[in-house]
Task: structure prediction
Amino acid sequence: MINYRNLTPGELEAWVTEQGLPAYRARQLFRWLWRPGFDDFEQATDFSKSLRHQFARDGYIWTPEVLEIQNSTDNTQKFAWGLEDGEVIETVLIPERDHTTLCVSTQAGCAMGCRFCHTARMGFRRNLEPFEVAGQALWITDHVSEEQWPRNIVFMGMGEPLANYENLLKSLEILTHDLGLNFSLRRITVSTCGLVPEMLRLGHHLDVGLAVSLHAPDNETRNQIMPVNRRYDIDRLIRACRDFPLSKRRRITFEYLLLKDVNDSLEHARRLGRLLRGIPAKINLIPFNESPGIPFRRSSEEQMEEFQHALREMNYTVMMRKSKGRDISAACGQLYAEKAGH
Ligand code: SF4
Result:
């Protein structure tokens, strides 16, 4: 049986016409499927009784189920979801000054093996289906207050989005469709640890925001903490960033996790500044949240400030990400790690 929510508008139309129904039924059905609170075809009042029965007989509607919600003192919320096969994924809802950002997962586990990451310790379990990615946003838009309704979506939760490329594209299509949740593509950012070919493919296909998890300014340092760098080294990655087709006013966000005595020296900051020269860039510095099993330490406040200052001196826009949700371990994979006793 098909899960209707796993179909893009085009796939739904193909399926509906195969059943001998007119194409406009697909548009009506898609609108229902992505309407918050819809979970029973009896609610689809513009369908005849027999059509409602036909849809209920031939397929089903399902999105991930919430297992647990954790609330941080700074109002960050973390959601753990159970999937049909028992896998667990998570989503974080982050309140900012004037809007809310939703951070979604694209894989259960991850194969990329970044040494500072909890999700990496799970190993790769499987790719998420389009409905499992978009479904995280659907449930949340249905259950949070209007002020908390997310305006921005970042694909920075569990998994490497570009390693699940086809399903990423389908979930983006569902999330941004005007008959669905109608998120603006301009407010969506896809993050990658540096899968160069898929990154360029995405840029040529969609005008979506790009965030690169860089975390080091040279191969020697990056090889130590991110195995992907042995496949696509810094030179290749930065060349791809320079070639990335950015529309006007867009900049690439470079994420940089500050790890004590690993990548946080002034020399690293200067190298980073030289490396990114000429790229329309925004740099997000991220303080590391120490946690058991991850062999790194948090940089001192002074070190982090000096690092930031050095980059500002080189005229970069640099943000120090506040440690949102620190009391609920809101870094990717941490809730899973706790639940699984890792
Ligand atoms: S940081 Fe991202 S890409 Fe790296 S292992 Fe974790 S989830 Fe995967």
About this structure: The chain has a mean pLDDT of 93. The first helix runs from residue 9 to 18.
